[in-house]
Specification:
Pfam families: Formyl_trans_N. The chain contains six helices and seven strands; from the N terminus they run βαβαβαβαβαββα. It is α/β, with parallel strands linked by helices. The chain has a seven-stranded mixed sheet, with helices on both faces. The structure holds 5-O-phosphono-beta-D-ribofuranosylamine (GRF).
Length: 183
């Protein structure tokens, strides 16, 4: 099974997926919408081909998504794992890969969807937040939940220490869920 990871930033989840020695699929492409993202160095280190695009150079979302779909099909990709991809998936990509796009989000959805979920949870003062892996649909972080794991917020947590613990859970959970779906 050939899969693509989509990422816009640091790529710690991409790295965690790549480091999983028994991953049940081949990560054959990294798609990135930020030419300066450090995930690109990680892809190079792992020898994963990249498709990097600048959305500003396209007239619309459907224009760049058509190009993305073309690249995915060219590489025979059948699954997409979003890992810090900071764009809303539009109908062009969604229709081409229906039920084959999943995402990892750093909260217990439906709580704290959208950007800065960790900061939102921290500011709200909840005692438990967590991590969700879910299917992508046309909404923002609204798709069917596949797996969730709670993370306790400690009274002496800073946003930074909370983020570290959440990311540790992400790095463990995402490859496990991926392997389960590949069966
Ligand atoms: C992760 O916290 C993920 O849940 C969210 O974006 C972050 C990406 O981090 N969607 P990284 O680029 O994988 O380090």
């Amino acid at each position: 099974i050939r899969a693509a990871v989509f990422a816009s930033g640091a790529g710690s989840n991409f790295q965690a997926i790549m480091e999983r020695s028994d991953l049940q699929c081949d990560i054959s492409l990294l798609v990135c919408d930020k030419p300066s993202a450090s995930v690109l160095e990680k892809a190079e280190n792992f020898g994963v081909p990249t498709f990097v695009f600048d959305p500003k150079k396209y007239a619309s979302k459907s224009n760049y998504e058509k190009e993305v779909v073309r690249r995915l099909q060219q590489a025979n990709i059948s699954w997409i794992f979003l890992a810090g991809y900071m764009r809303i998936v539009g109908p062009t990509l969604l229709n081409a890969y229906e039920t084959k796009i999943i995402n990892i989000h750093p909260s217990l959805l439906p709580y704290f969807p959208g950007k800065d979920a960790i900061g939102q949870a921290y500011q709200a003062g909840v005692s438990t937040t967590g991590v969700t892996v879910h299917y992508i649909d046309e909404g923002i972080d609204t798709g069917t939940v596949i797996a969730q794991e709670p993370v306790e917020v400690f009274s002496d947590d800073t946003e930074e220490t909370l983020k570290e613990r959440i990311q540790q859970v992400e790095h463990r959970l995402y490859p496990i869920v991926i392997n389960r779906l590949m069966k």
